[in-house]
Design brief:
The protein has six helices and 15 strands. By secondary structure, the protein is mainly beta. The protein folds into two domains: 115 residues, Cytochrome Bc1 Complex, Chain D, domain 2, CATH 1.10.760; 237 residues, monomeric porin ompg (Porin, Beta Barrel), CATH 2.40.160. Strands 1-2-3-6-7-8-9-10-12-13-14-15 form a twelve-stranded antiparallel beta barrel. The longest helix is centred in the first third of the chain and has 11 residues. It is elongated, with a radius of gyration of 25 Å. It binds heme C (HEC). Heme C binds next to helix 3 and helix 5.
């Protein structure tokens, strides 16, 4: 009997009632699997077929558009393909292929999808490591972040921060940071006025990235303007410029490391000393169930050393957990604590949290 099937398959004849009926041999390459499962909607070129050829009107993604495709990690696309559109807050029109293709076959399809964007200047989404509460990361982002920090020891303070980040070109980004809030000046003088702090403008450019080695390096510069009131404890009273290097490294078992080094140069050293800044983040990311919410516990180690006559070195630890809030995973929450390791009677402990909106992936109310 087997020889007959072999002959039939060899001749390309359909065997009724079997999966082989659709074609002579089920494909084993990513391209073949894509052509069978995906091309009738997504097109052989990955740009999406003309909507007049299909029975739905959801716009199809363009996998050849690097600005969209490069930033999406394989794992997210495998989830959408395995579980269907709604698993990441997309439409039902994107079918679930979990019953038809194994994760290994979907990975072959992803390797094929990646060929549609051939421009290697765009860093891949796999290198977009979770954002720590304080340490700037190396990956360029399109995001808006609201951060709140409240002192839980020492003088009281409530400081909010709005950060807006926008990518330009394949691997660059600019950002604006606007802090606002109020501080207790001392127990005798009470609180200062509520106001804006020192606004910062920054640019960042990725100089190296490789999915093979799991590493990404960016250089950047930040200019901090003296917009905050010094009387209310909200500003340093002088402009500062901070060139920096940021590095991210994927490790095995979902773990990662991030590092940051910078120098903060002050225009007026009487008001604010030059500072050397070194930060490191160690953490990991795990999904709840096979394709669910992502949890990323992290630990930051912060070090600053002021330069000059009364040079001083401060250390802090920032334990924290980041979690995705919605199905699309583009709204994230991080909660943690900044704990000083030295001079603890003088330096306050802070409770910190942020809500991050990766606005490129959808509106605030999309994908819940
Ligand atoms: C019946 C048509 C159809 C088929 C077949 C199909 N898709 Fe889709 N796919 C869609 C539509 C429509 C969307 C957009 C959904 C939305 O934006 O809400 C989509 C979205 C996606 C996305 C999400 C992209 C993003 O925005 O992040 C991925 C990944 C994807 N498809 C992969 C695949 C793969 C892989 C296959 C084959 C195994 C496949 N699709 C087969 C219709 C289809």
């Amino acid at each position: 009997m087997r020889w007959l099937i072999t002959l039939v398959v060899f001749l390309g004849l359909p065997i009724p009632g079997t999966a082989w009926a659709q074609g002579p041999v089920f494909p084993t390459t990513g391209e073949g699997l894509y052509d069978v499962g995906c091309a009738k909607c997504h097109g052989e070129d990955g740009k999406g077929v003309d909507l007049s050829l299909v029975a739905f009107d959801e716009p199809l993604p363009d996998f050849s558009d690097c600005s969209f495709a490069a930033r999406e990690p394989d794992a997210d696309w495998i989830t959408v393909s395995h579980e269907g559109g709604p698993s990441r807050g997309f439409s039902h029109t994107m079918p679930a292929f979990g019953g038809a293709f194994s994760v290994e076959q979907l990975q072959l399809i992803m390797d094929h999808l990646r060929r549609f964007c051939a421009d290697e200047r765009w860093p891949r989404g796999e290198l977009n490591l979770p954002r720590a509460l304080i340490t700037e990361k190396a990956f360029p982002e399109d995001e808006a972040v609201y951060t709140l920090s409240v002192n839980s020891s020492g003088d009281s303070a409530v400081i909010n921060k709005i950060t807006y980040e926008k990518r330009f070109g394949p691997s660059s980004m600019w950002e604006v940071i606007v802090p606002f809030g109020a501080r207790e000046l001392s127990s005798e003088n009470g609180w200062g006025d509520v106001g804006i702090g020192d606004i910062a403008l920054a640019v960042k450019h990725t100089v190296h990235h490789s999915v093979e080695s799991g590493s990404i390096v960016a250089v950047g510069g930040e200019m901090i303007l003296p917009t905050g009131s010094t009387n209310d404890g909200l500003g340093a009273g002088t402009t500062r410029f901070e060139p920096f290097v940021a590095y991210g490294q994927l490790l095995s078992d979902n773990l990662f490391l991030q590092a940051f080094g910078g120098v903060e140069l002050s225009a007026d050293r009487d008001k604010s000393a030059h500072e050397v800044i070194a930060r490191a983040v160690f953490g990991g990311s795990w999904t709840q169930g096979d394709f669910g919410r992502t949890w990323s516990p992290m630990m930051e180690l912060l070090n600053t050393t002021t330069l000059g006559d009364d040079s001083e070195t401060n250390w802090s630890l920032v334990p924290q957990v980041q979690v995705s809030l919605n199905t699309r995973q583009h709204i994230l929450l991080n909660v943690g604590m900044n704990v000083p390791l030295n001079d603890t009677h003088r330096r306050s402990t802070q409770v910190l949290m942020y809500v991050l909106w990766d606005w490129f992936d959808g509106g605030l109310f999309d994908g819940w």
